[in-house]
Amino acid sequence: MNDISKDKDYQEFFAGIKELAKGLMQIRERAAIEYAPIVEEFCARKHATANEVGRMLDYLFEFADDERILLMYKKVCRRFVYEYPDTISYYIMEYRKEYDRESLIGTKYEYLLHEDDDLYDEECVKQNNKIE
Predict the structure, then answer these.
(1) Which are the contacts of 35, defined by CB distance < 8 A and separation ≥ 6?
(2) Torsion of the alpha carbons at 21, 25, 30 and 33, rounded to the nearest 10
(3) 3-class state of residue 84 by DSSP
(4) What residues contact residue 57 under an 8 Å CB cut-off, 6+ apart?
(5) What is the pTM of this model?
(6) Do residues 32 and 68 touch, judged by C-beta distance below 8 A?
(7) Can you give the chain as a three-state secondary structure string?
(8) Which residues, including other chains, have CB under 8 Å from residue 91's CB and lie 6 or more apart?
(9) Closest Cα partner for 65 from 22, 97, 107, 18?
């Protein structure tokens, strides 16, 4: 009887995960649809401030692992790279750190792959101390 209960719990858990994944896919789809005209209008503008460019890239960053959003991200970067090279460089590096880590290996930026290691190690020690 206990095995049946576990199996039912697993099936319910799995169904919940599938539903969550479906919801996330719908959010991604909606983001791609909603951001497309906004990015087009934004890139067509004659001027935008560095703050506006940064904000736009922040919005897109959360979905930049989606090819459609990545293309928009790149479009904004290409449009404003000469006006705000420092801002664009920052966001390109943030993208690489989050979504394209392999591109940093063997470069002078490889150290960025390990910048959170100390934080992670401290968190592990804290968690282990709580358990004991």
Answers:
(1) 59, 60, 63, 69, 72
(2) 170
(3) coil
(4) 73, 76, 77, 87, 91
(5) 0.72
(6) yes
(7) CHHHHHHHHHHHHHHHHHHHHHHHHHHHHHHHHHHHHHHHHHHHCCCCCHHHHHHHHHHHHCCCCCHHHHHHHHHHHHHHCCCCHHHHHHHHHHHHHHHCHHHHCCCCCHHHHHCCHHHHHHHHHHHHHHHC
(8) 54, 57, 61, 73, 77
(9) 97
What is the C-alpha to C-alpha distance for residues 53 and 89, in angstroms, rounded to an integer? 12
pLDDT mean over 46-65: 95
Two tokens, residue 16 = 């919940």
CA–CA separation, 96 and 104 (whole Å): 7
Question: Mean per-residue pLDDT for 69-97?
Answer: 96
Q: Taking each helix axis from N to C terminus, what angle separates 50-61 and 67-80, rounded to the nearest 10 degrees?
A: 170
* DSSP E strand stretches across 7-84: none
**∠ at Cα 105 (85, 115), nearest 5°?**
75
Percent of the chain with pLDDT over 90: 56
Q: Report whether 43 contacts 75 (CB < 8 A).
A: yes
